[in-house]
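README: folding subset

This subset contains proteins for which both the sequence and a predicted structure token string are available. Records are stored as plain text. Below is the entry for Transmembrane protein (462 residues), shown exactly as it appears on disk.
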Amino acid sequence: MGGTKPIDRPRGKDDVPRATGGIVQIHNFTLLAIAIIFSLFFILALSCAFFGDDEDEPYFKSVLNEVAQTSPGIVLLGENVDVDVDEPSITIRWSVIGCGDGYVLDGSSGIHESSSCGLPSMYLQIYVDSSPDPTAVYDPSQLPFVRQTGRRRNIQNLVQFDSDHTLDVHEDRLYPFDTYVLTSTLRAVDASNATVPISKLTTIDQVSSFLVASSDLDSYGTTANGTQVPSRDIDLRVQRPGQARAFTLLLFGLSWMLTHVTFGHVILAKKHKEVKPILKHLVSAFAIVLAIPQLRNAMPDAPGFDGVLIDCIGFFPQMILSTFSVLTLLLLIMLREFDSMNDKPLVIGVTAARSLIAPAPASPKEPPTPTSPLKPLILGAKQKITVSTTLEHGDLISEKRELKGDYVFPPRSSGSSGSSTIHHRSRSSRSFFAVTAFGGRPGSVYGHQLSRSSTLRSVKER
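--- output ---
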């Protein structure tokens, strides 16, 4: 029976199994997909903070139920508190509500989900801070009915009014730890000018960028004839929430860190000898100068640039120091430009300089290479200059300097130099060639093997 036999192919380097130590390797695409999914879950988790607010019990429900049970009467609810620290002033929006039997208008109960409270059933004039004229006038006869149900409509402009107050600003310089205090007194009268007791004054406890703590107390005033007039006072204490303080301090710290970064740019730029690296530090420092005011404006409900404490120890010194850093970098660039202009070398042609100092001697024609080493010594012929000859005469340094473009003084002519003498001795002796000229180093001695002659003779070398 015929068949096929699989061919075993050698494994390459990539086919060799590698040990991973139990760790599963994840591809880059998988990591990117996991990061995107995690980001979406994070955003959805934060978005859940906006849900469920309708399930909470109304803020004023417990207060209204307590008033209806303990002390029925007129209630003024501060449903909005607008704090303006630049004025400085505070505006409170009051809602007029009646709680208890005899104080609730028919068909209006159920305000803030309190079955015992509703719109007042009587005509009212409300005076704020002993004003001679009433700040608000409430007339239940102006409220419309709903045709289908017969209930009274709660028209905000008919049952609400605003009162403006001046804040105590003794601590406004301590932003974000500034605290504002307000005291106010209110009283109500009916159509017959008889005083109607106000049972409760309260406000919401938190608005944007501020926490409001309120407390009320029963008070009275006196007329010219000594008659006591019942009133109700409220004390407000307004301060920043903890989140606003935390964000403000973080932005304050980041601004100082960026200012310190500009100092680092100056220190690093001083170590560079060229202009191009300094330009990178300059761009970064200039961007920091532009970013610091934006961080100051990002502080929650920050006051103007009026010299508050956070600006005296933060914004103004930061801008001054970071701007000085930018100016220092500009001066460094100017100095490096001047240094580069002064450090440019003066280029002189080597050939032109040599021709001005001493003309190069004409090189004589080289004789043919002798067959015997004694022939040039006897006949006075010159050997061909090779690399070894250049090394012997010490001309290698001059050749290297001339190739680099440096100026080299020309060698002296051999014709003007003194003659050197070669002494020949017996067969066992050596001859020493004392060079006193022609570019040789003084004191250097070169030896040559001479002929077998035992007599002394001298040969003059040109």
